[in-house]
Amino acid sequence: MSLDRHDLAGRPLIVGGGIAGLMTALCLAPEPVVLLSKASLGGESSSVLAQGGMAASLGGEDDPALHMEDTLAAGDGLCDPAAVRRVIEAAPAVVDRLGRLGVAFDRTPTGALQLGLEAAHSRRRIVHASGDATGRELVRALVAAVRHTPSIELVEHMEVRRLFVTDGAIGGALAVGRAGAMVFETGRIVLATGGIGGLFLDSTNPLGCFGQGLALAARAGAELADLEFVQFHPTALDGPRRPMRLISEAVRGEGAVLVDEAGRRFLADMPGAELAPRDAVARGVWRHLSEGHRVFLDARQCLGTRFAERFPAIAAYCHGAGVDPATQPIPVRPAVHYHMGGIAVDPAGRSSVPGLWACGEVASTGLHGANRLASNSLSEAVVCAQRVAESVAAATSGPLRRLHFPMAACLPPHPDPLPVRPIVSFAMGVLRHQECLSEGIEALLPLATADGAASDPATVALMMCVAAMQRQESRGAHFRSDFPQRDTIARRSKLTLDAALDAAFALIDRPIPLARSA
C-alpha cells in the first residue's frame, strides 16, 4: 500500500459527513476546507436516522428559560449551565438558518412551524421534518448545500486511522481509502465522527459508529469527559434487525402507552409515566423484561389509523417486521441511542490538544449532563458547528514541522468492533455493577493494548468502563445497582488514555508494561 502526502496548505480538515461535519464546513465558507467522510456524505451517520426533531423555544407559550429548566432537570445535576444557555438561546435562530439552507420543516396549514412534544419537555417545542424523518431531511439539504459550495473539497470513502501530534499540537492525519493511504498535513482538524452505539449489540446507531473519533483523540493525548453516560432509548423495535429501528419518543408524545403481554400499563404509577426522562423509562422497561415479561408500545387508542400519516417511516419499519401499529401494539426494548460523553471541549469546541476541535455527538460540551433531553442533540450539532467554525477560522495555521509517520507495513488495521460488542453490552448495560464492570475491563484490556483490529474499539470501551467503575453513584443514564444513591455533590468525569490504562492495570493487579500501544 502506498503512502502519499497531501499538504492542505493551511486548510482545516473536517472529519465526518454527518450534520455536525456538514454544518461546520458550510459555516467556514468561503474559507477553503477539506471535508473527509469514510462513506458517502451522510451515508453512515446517526444523523440520517434521527427521527426526533430539533428542540427550540419557538411557541407562543415557550421561552428559552423554560427550555433551559427542562434541560437542566433531565441532565440530573451534571449540565454546564453556561453551555446549556449558549445552545438553547441560539437554537431558534439556527432553525431559521436551516430553513434558508433548504430544510423543509413540517408546518401547519397556516404556514407556522408545527411543534411537537417529547418526553421531559414542558412545552411543545420540537420542530420536525417529513414527520419522523428529520435527520434524513437535514442531511439531504446540507449535503446539497455542501456539494454546491466551491470552497469545500470533498474526500469520500476515506477513513482516518491516526492523528499526528508534533510539539504538543496537531500536525496532520493518516487516512486510508480505496486508493491507498494518505497523510493530510494540517494544523487544524475538526472531529465530527458521531457516537459509540456500534460498540453494543443492541443499538439504534449505524454499526459503523463505534467511537472512532474518541479513539483518535485519546491516542493523540486529548482529555475525554463523561464517558460513562450512555443513553438507552426505551423503545427500539424488538427484532433481529441491526441497527435496531427506533420508535420515536414523539409517538409517546402523541399518547402511546407502554404495556406488557397482559395489556397492563406497568409504568402508570411512575412520575411522568411514559413521558418521564429516558433513563427512568429505559430502566423501567429493562426491569420488566428482566422479570420475564414482554413490552409493547400501544398507539391504537391515541393514533389508530392515523399512525401511518403521522409517522410514515416508523409505520413502514413496523410493517416490515410484520406489525401493523394501527391495530397491533409494537414490541419494543431498550437500545443504545446516544452518548452524552465525548471529547472534552471548551465553548469554542477546542479539545485539550491544540489544533483539535470536536463537534456533534463525539464532543462533550456539558449541554446534556447525565441524561440528554430529547431532541437537544440536533440543535447542539448545528449551534456548535457555528461556534467551532468561528474558532477554527480565527486560529492561525503556522508553518508545520515535517511529519514522521510509520511505513505502510505499520498502518493501523481497519478497526473491527465485533469482538468488543458482547463484552461492552454485558458490562455497560442499562443496569451496572462492579462485578460486571471489572469483568469487562479485564476482557477489554488485552484487546486494547494489542495492535489488532479490535484495538481502537476496545480502547474506547475500556475507557468507558473505567469511567463507569470510578463513578460510584447512580445519576442520570448511569445506574449502579451496587451504588443506587446519587452523590450530594455533582462532578463531571475527565479521563485520558494513559490514566484509563493505569486504572485498568491496577484493577486487575498486573504490572504496567513498559511500552504500551499508542
CATH superfamily of the largest domain: FAD/NAD(P)-binding domain
Structural class: alpha/beta
CA radius of gyration is: 22 Å
Give the spatial strand order of the biggest sheet: 7-3-2-11-18
Could you give the distance between the termini?
22 Å
Record field, number of beta strands: 20
The overall average pLDDT, rounded, is 92
* Silhouette: globular
Largest sheet: 5 strands, parallel
Number of domains: 3
Supply the CATH architecture of the largest domain. Answer: 3-Layer(bba) Sandwich
List unreliable stretches of 5+ residues: 514-518
* Helix proportion range: 25-40%
CATH topology of the largest domain: FAD/NAD(P)-binding domain
Strand content: 15-25%
Count helical runs. 14
CATH level-1 class of the largest domain: Alpha Beta
Description:
The chain is an alpha/beta fold. It folds into 3 domains: 3-194 and 340-394, FAD/NAD(P)-binding domain; 233-335, Flavocytochrome C3, Chain A, domain 1, CATH 3.90.700; 413-518, Up-down Bundle (Methane Monooxygenase Hydroxylase, Chain G, domain 1), CATH 1.20.58. 31% of the residues lie in helices and 17% in strands. It has helices spanning 19-28, 64-74, 81-100, 134-147, 212-219, 249-253, 278-290, 307-310, 312-320, 376-394, 421-427, 434-448, 455-470, 497-507; strands at 3-7, 13-15, 33-37, 54-55, 115-116, 126-127, 152-156, 158-166, 169-177, 180-185, 189-191, 224-225, 230-237, 257-260, 295-298, 330-339, 342-344, 356-358, 363-364, 494-495. Strand 2, helix 1 (19-28) and strand 3 form a beta-alpha-beta unit. It starts with a strand and ends in an 11-residue tail after the last helix. Mean pLDDT is 92; it is low at 514-518.
